[in-house]
Every structure is written in C-alpha cells, then in structure tokens.
Design brief:
Length: 386
C-alpha cells in the first residue's frame, strides 16, 4: 500500500552531521544496508525515492505511487549518479543536492524542479552493467584489411551464415561499438544490452551504409571509417570528428515495408491556432477528443499511444496509425515535447501538439533521419502503465 512520505524537518539544508563531498553533495544515512557492494557509474539500480524542494514542497515520489523504479546511474542527474555510488543494498539515505548537480536554477527540461533539492532514496538492488568491449589492438586499418574505392577498410571478425546481404533500403538489426581513432569509446549497444534497429538509407554515416551491405547474417566485421565517410569534416553539433572505428554484428535484416498511405495534415498544421494552450516552455496543444478518468501519466510512466507527426509544411514523417500498430515507451525516453505534453493527458484522450524545435529534434538534428524544426503531432493516449 502506497503512502505519502512526510517532509523531513531538515529539508531546507544539510545538518551538521551530514557527509559532504568535494562536489558539494551532502548526505546522511537513515537506514543501514547490508554487504559491501556498491553500484558503479554505469550500473542499473532499483530504488524508492521521494524528492522535495528546499521549501518543503514534494515534487515527486515513487513511494507515494507505490512503484519502485529502475534506471542506469549514468542516465540521471549528477547528484544521483554520485550519491547512489555511496550506497549498499538495503540502505536508505537522504541527499541534499545543490542545483548544479540537479536541474539547475533555470531548468531546460519542462516541469523539472529548480534550485537545491532534497531526496530520500532507498536502494533495493544493483544490476552490474555489461563490461565495455575490448579496444581494438589496431586503431588504424592493417594491411590485411579489405579496402574499397571510397576509402572504407573492413575486416571480418566472425563469418556469418548464407550468402544474402542487405540492400540499401533494408531495415537492419545489429549490435555495434564505436571508437575514435585515439581509442575513446563513442557508443556501444553491447554495453546497453539492446541492439540498434534502423533503415539503412536513413543513416548519415556513409561508412555504415556501405559496410553493412558487405555483411551476411551473423557476421561480425570491423570498419575503419575515414572522416569523409563518417560525420564529415564539419560534423553537426555533438557529433565526433575525424576517423572512426566500429565493430558490427549483423543480427537480422529485412526489406522495408511499403510506405503507408499518408494521413492528411490538419488545416492548422502551419502554426498553433488562437484557441490552443501554450506552456512556459513553448509547447502548444489543443484537445481533440476528451478522455476518461482523471489520472495523468507521470514522467517515468510507460504509455501506449497512437500518433501521427507532420512538419509544418504538411509533410507526414511518421505515423503509428498508418502502420496500424500503437507504440509503447517510457515518457522520460522521448523528445521533451512528448514528455511534457503526454503528462497533460488522460486515457482515451486525443490531443494535437505544436512542438518547437528545441523540444523536438532541433534545427540541426544529430539523429539520422530525424525531422527538423517545429513539429505537429496528433496523439491518442490509449493506456498508462504496462
């Protein structure tokens, strides 16, 4: 049975007996745990927590909802990433987190609390992150590598089965790990424990497009990708520069389904009408169909929705409705406009959103194939929770 925790008497500031780290994070053990194992910075943890602003206002609580949450420590605010690494299973600890280790004084994320925050956290379990894949011994292509006219070098690490290879528009399912030429790890689906899936003709890295078409199912291959076949000499913001190394394992590939018939754009696709609601973040929305009940999803809830998205010139870029398949996702795992907007809805409701670029993929998206600028979505909230 869930309960709403009481506001701590020392919520405003850390007491004299609190421990304070060099970063400014203060904490105090409320309940001792067992054992000596503590989570690492990439490990996943299961916790109960409650959070208050320093004036005593509770802004979130898994304990009040009666649902523990799990997350990787490298996917939360710095104060949590640092603080949870001091804990053992069974321990309960209070944290006084300065703004710079939380969401800041003026949070960019819609709905996030500002300033110093206080959390009570109880740690229930730790799941170790997968080990980082081994760094290749050869960060430049050896003489034995195969080379194409484009400058791409590849070497088979494990043979696959059969002779069929992906086409340029196929949907790829693969594990990969990428490094810079100096050995810096870029990204790894192996470490994340979930393979990537993408349409090959929507990938911006030309070395991937060319190299994956050389592979067969089950094959592992290393790519040495020159900068011209990577993100280029003038990459988008946040993208790596220079030559890249990738290890790929091709798990599956399939022909892309025929494009669904586009759903006509709404008459007001170009801009939000005068009867829409606009939040402080710049998100505009309009109720299309009322729902039932009064429960709204929380930021960490899983939701099941149908949606259609258009650019402001009326071009449809994606639609679960056209595919006939609703999708499920955690609200804190999507674009900021969806995270904020879907929390306004109840089950059965349909709403139209005008999402500015800063709350979507930006004006120069780093994600391959992502739409640019302001986007318009019709969203129907089918279900809250799994």
């Amino acid at each position: 049975m869930s309960k709403t925790p009481k506001t701590p008497q020392d919520v405003a500031a850390a007491p004299a007996d609190a421990e304070i780290t060099d970063s400014g994070l203060a904490s105090k053990v409320l309940q001792a745990g067992s054992g000596t194992v503590k989570p690492g910075p990439r490990d996943s943890v299961e916790v109960h927590y409650s959070g208050w602003t320093s004036d005593g206002k509770m802004f979130d609580s898994s304990e009040a909802r009666g649902e523990k949450i799990s997350f990787p420590l490298n996917g939360v605010i710095p104060g949590w990433t640092e603080g949870l690494q001091h804990m053992v299973v069974g321990e309960k600890r209070r944290f006084w987190i300065p703004a710079e280790l939380a969401y800041g004084e003026t949070p960019s994320r819609p709905g996030a609390p500002s300033g110093n925050l206080t959390f009570d956290v109880e740690l229930f379990s730790i799941e170790a992150a997968p080990e980082a894949p081994a760094l290749p011994e050869e960060l430049t292509a050896p003489d034995s590598a195969e080379r194409s006219e484009s400058g791409l070098a590849t070497q088979i690490l494990q043979k696959g089965g059969g002779g069929e290879k992906p086409g340029p528009a196929d949907i790829i399912t693969a594990h990969f790990t990428g490094w810079l030429e100096d050995g810096t790890l870029l990204e790894s689906t192996v470490m994340n424990g979930k393979p990537a899936q993408f349409k090959l003709n929507q990938v911006s890295i030309k070395g991937w497009v060319e190299g994956l078409q050389l592979m067969t199912k089950g094959e592992k291959r290393r790519f040495w990708i020159p900068a011209a076949l990577g993100f280029g000499e003038n990459p988008p913001p946040g993208a790596p520069t220079g030559n890249l190394i990738f290890d790929f394992e091709l798990l599956e590939f399939q022909a892309a389904p025929k494009a669904a018939e586009p759903i006509p754009a709404p008459d007001d696709v170009a801009s939000a009408p005068s009867d829409s609601e606009t939040s402080k973040s710049g998100l505009s929305s309009k109720l299309l169909t009322p729902g039932s009940g009064s429960k709204h999803p929380a930021e960490t809830d899983e939701v099941l929705v149908h949606y259609t998205g258009w650019t402001t010139d009326g071009k449809m870029f994606d639609s679960s409705v056209a595919r006939g398949e609703p999708i499920s996702f955690p609200l804190n795992g999507v674009i900021a406009g969806w995270t904020e907007g879907v929390q306004l809805m109840v089950e059965g409701e349909k709403r139209r959103f005008w999402i500015p670029g800063k709350l979507a993929y930006g004006d120069t998206p780093s994600r391959p194939g992502a739409p640019v600028g302001t986007l318009v979505f019709d969203v129907e909230l089918i279900k809250i929770g799994n």
